[in-house]
Amino acid sequence: MRKGLLTIATVGLLATGGLAACGDDSGGNDQAGSGQTPKIGVILPDSKSSARWEGADRKFLQEAFEAAGVEYDIQNAQGDKTQFQTIADQMITSGVTVLMIVNLDSGTGKAVLDKAKSQGVATIDYDRLTLGGSAEYYVSFDNVAVGKLQGEGLVKCLGEKNVKSPAIAYLNGSPTDNNATLFKSGYDSVLKPKFDAKEYTKAADDAVPDWDNAQAATIFEQQLTKTGGKIDGVLAANDGLGNAAISILKKNKLNGRVPVTGQDATPEGLQNILAGDQCMTVYKAVKEEAKAASDLAIGLAKGERKETGQTVKDPEGGRDVPSVLLTPKAIYKENVKDVIADGYVTKDEICTEAYAKFCTEAGIS
To answer: pLDDT > 90: what percent of the chain?
Structure first.
């Protein structure tokens, strides 16, 4: 996996929605706000790696743009780098004044951002920083903190099961996604000291290309085979990878006995937690992320630049990128109801007939 970690320089605290407007003195694009009709283009990465992109991000961004009365175009590249670039070209040709992307990898993302910049189109990195890129803003969560919550969650669940000298398997995210590097940095900060002290052993450590859940199941089955079934905990980087591991654990009648982590608080992940097959997930309030990004995009579309109060160092480009980094939250069985209360998922999505008794046990009514 890539070793370039982001350095977060906190210049001030940012309250969501409290972005302060300032003069356009940063150079860059002149197209937005120059009399053209404001139009915002958004490229989402896929619908396979996580349910969030179509189930949450699209909805919240669309609501924000419609409330502001700006024209917008949201498309999904479905994991295809060629399609990603084609969509970007079409959006630029159609006259978008702001382009927001969730890159599939930094190389493709950089090419798209640089082309947009050359055409005077303002750009925003959404959720994933494009290393070496030229985006004017970066909006995401504190991804090292996400990984730290995962590491702490696995330690907590292993402790509750009183597992001695546990063997841990890593199912890391895509090696081309800088966020996956940051997540790993976070959980390594918790687990590496335990490996070094011989309290835990690392049984396996594999990245899953493109966050592909089918590949994750194959990789985890190979991990389980190579260790002779001796895996006591799984650090899975998101709920999709976690569910892939759980499917193999079920096949081997190990589900519920081996703690598995996750991320994204997907309906499937939350159901796995309620059923006892998944240890925890990390909830990222996508509504807040979408609001912060849409506020910046709408401002750029109207020719306004806003201070974020934070910057992130791009380790490849060397730039301090104006950023918004939001705070993630660990979710266990006892607080699954918090995700429902926040409106991210509904009770009906989670408490289907097969999970009704688990919902009752967790106080979800």
So the answer is: 88
